Amino acid sequence: MTRTALVFRHMSDDTGGCFPALLRDRGFDVSFLDWHNGETPDNMSGIDLVVVLGGAQQVWEEDEHAWLSAEKTVIRDWVETRAKPYIGLCLGHQLLATALGGDVGYGGTTEVGVCTVAFDDTAPVKGSQTVTQWHSAEVKQAPGAALVHGSSDLCAIQMMTVGTHAYSTQFHHEWDAATVRGWAPSWQTEMNKTGKSEDAYTNFVGHVEEAQPQLTSLTRNLFDNFMTTQGW
User: Fold this and answer.
1) Which domain holds residue 72?
2) Which of 9, 95, 146, 191 maximizes the CB count within 10 A of its CB?
3) Tens digit of pLDDT for each residue in 31-88?
4) How would you list the strands of the sheet with 28-34, edge to edge?
5) Alpha-carbon span 83 to 57, nearest angstrom
């Protein structure tokens, strides 16, 4: 039986990194829904999994991006009411937190690059793990329904789970070397601005390539654990 994964996207040039391929390898039919282009889900009844990607928007910018409110409502219904499978990445992590009553705000500093996250003993992965990051906001308070499983020096809530059907991460474990090498020029320029260096993007690609074995291991461990937990 073919399962269906609906990927919520907030930037048209976001490919979803390695996740579409991982999902298709598991037999999923994968489609994208572009909230930023005015798309909304007509019927969620045929969807098995929702994956929510990152984005340049902030979760509180509903005046600038009115669709954020509707997306949070859909996420709340999906995760809290229906208890259906959900994976959130960066903005998708923050949207899950706010949709369920948590709090998101700017962090003390932008966390960007190849970094380290420490996971607790109840997480699907254990100990210190290498991850990729790019965010200026963070979850300040997790919702009551969520458990926190990971933290970094700059961000206390790097991973959350809700029951056994939903997890989200502040870090981008959908990114691999092929993904970041293929970034749109606007993304490359923005990373140079964030890193305050004309070499920031080039250096980031090099660091991702060096760390690829660890990044791949983390991605597969989280992804495979979640699929197994769902009985897939």
Assistant:
1) 3-229
2) 95
3) 999 999 999 998 899 999 999 999 999 999 999 999 999 999 999 999 999 999 999 9
4) 28-34, 3-9, 49-52, 86-89, 166-169, 159-162, 146-151, 103-119, 127-141
5) 26
